[in-house]
Design goal:
Elements lengths: L6 H17 L3 H33 L4 E6 L4 E4 L1 H7 L3 H4 L4 H4 L2 H17 L3 E9 L2 E13 L5 E10 L1 H57 L6 H28 L8 E3 L1 H11 L1 H6 L3 E6 L6 E3 L1 H18 L9 E9 L3 E8 L27 H11 L3 E6 L5 E8 L2
Parallel strand pairs: 7-9
Antiparallel strand pairs: 1-2, 1-5, 3-4, 4-5, 6-8, 9-10, 10-12, 11-12
Helix pairs in contact: 1-2, 7-8, 8-11, 9-11, 11-12
């Protein structure tokens, strides 16, 4: 920044005034010269204080402040610019950006300076600075230096380091994007869970509708077969209870509190599942074979949840054999003790099997081998089995059916 006249110039001026005072004989002239001297001294003190204040502000500013001539040569560099741009005043003053910085950075700065001088107004832009702190991003504001007669003599600039601000903005944008992805994922999860619940409930509701239609047909017959009608009504009641158990099981599955566990006869549960799906097995022309070990001890857990697991496995087997035409459709359900502390329930089908490469992922949410499946049934089944302290696994050669094995501990 251009400096005001030095203390030496001021002292010389005051000596000249004193000499003039001595030359004039009249006291009036001498008094007038003395008054001028006092006014000059006051103005100088005011100028010196203002200069000191300005230098203090510029030198302690957190922004990089500089001034250049019209040709781009620096005439002022403050302390922050020395640090930010890694350039000393001794080296920078009198030189251009092209002599001090890399060409790409110098060209960027010069273009912004020229723009400000051409428009005669404030120019604002983001610039890159390479210095001791590494690469930084600054918000540069440049205004032209205009003389009293309106000529543009140079440029004055203030650059504020906004690197951390930009990083924070980027982090916030990434955080918002992540939250949006998580929101979309949760919405997708809700949609998938809703579809899975609808899938589970649709089976007993379909059976209820079938039995109700059969009951209406029986009511039109003469004589009325009361025993057959009673059997149909009992089946409707069983499927209603099963629907209620499905809702109870799903609700308790996502409840954080520990659920009371009751003794469960696995053989009876397996038979109940086969009975509830008897119509569907018949419609798909599937032969069912059961080999249930006698004298199995009860397992302790949630009746509705374990029934849901076996139902899901049997229903998956039915769907897997839907396209099987080159051999008989057979479903095999077996129970066996494992050692003295566990029971094994196995569901096998004669469908096309599962690609062995997919066996490790079929229990993950949204992974399915079905064309119209949501891929949530087996994930929920595995969650239920794990909460009962058991294991659920699958095996297949990818050609001749699949086997799902459920191992439950005996307490």
């Amino acid at each position: 920044m251009p400096q005001p006249e030095s203390d030496g110039d001021y002292a010389e001026l005051m000596r000249e005034i004193s000499a003039l005072e001595a030359e004039f004989a009249t006291s009036e002239v001498r008094n007038r010269l003395a008054d001028v001297g006092r006014r000059i001294e006051t103005l100088y003190e005011s100028l010196r204080e203002n200069r000191l204040l300005l230098e203090t502000v510029l030198e302690n500013s957190a922004a990089s402040i500089y001034a250049k001539r019209k040709d781009g040569r620096y005439i002022y560099i403050n302390r922050e610019m020395e640090i930010l741009c890694n350039v000393t005043r001794e080296r920078g003053l009198g030189r251009t950006d092209f002599e001090l910085f890399p060409t790409d950075i110098a060209q960027q700065w010069r273009s912004n300076d020229v723009k400000a001088m051409l428009t005669g107004t404030l120019s604002q832009s983001e610039e890159t600075v390479q210095g001791a702190r590494g690469e930084r991003t600054v918000l540069a504001k440049s205004v032209p230096l205009i003389s009293r007669n309106g000529d543009i003599e140079g440029i004055c600039g203030i650059s504020t380091d906004i690197t951390d601000l930009r990083r924070t903005e980027l982090a916030l944008r990434e955080a918002v994007a992540k939250l949006e992805r998580e929101r979309d994922s949760k919405l997708l999860n809700i949609e998938a869970i809703t579809a899975s619940i609808a899938h589970e409930v649709r089976q007993p509701l379909t059976a209820i509708a079938t039995y109700a239609n059969a009951a209406q047909q029986f009511l039109g017959r003469t004589p009325l077969d009361v025993d057959e009608l009673r059997t149909i009504v009992d089946q409707i009641g069983n499927d209603c209870r099963r629907t209620n158990e499905i809702f109870d099981g799903i609700r308790s599955l996502f409840r954080r509190a520990d659920q009371p566990r009751v003794p469960i006869e696995i053989n009876q549960t397996a038979l109940d599942v086969l009975q509830s799906l008897a119509g569907e097995l018949r419609d798909h022309r599937i032969a069912t074979h059961t080999v249930l070990a006698a004298g199995l001890p009860p397992v302790y857990g949630h009746q509705g949840q374990l029934r849901q697991v076996i139902t899901n496995l049997v229903h998956n087997a039915i769907e897997a054999m839907e396209t099987t035409t080159d051999r008989g459709r057979e479903l095999r359900l077996t129970t066996n003790p494992q050692g003295g502390n566990a029971i094994v329930v196995a569901v096998e089908d004669s469908g096309p099997g599962i690609d062995p490469a997919q066996l490790g992922s079929i229990f993950e949410a949204f992974v399915t081998t079905k064309a119209k499946g949501m891929g949530l049934g087996l994930a929920i089944c595995r969650m239920i089995v794990h909460r009962h302290g058991g294991q659920l696994s699958a095996s297949s050669d990818g050609k001749s059916g699949a086997r799902f094995q459920l191992v439950l501990p005996v307490e």
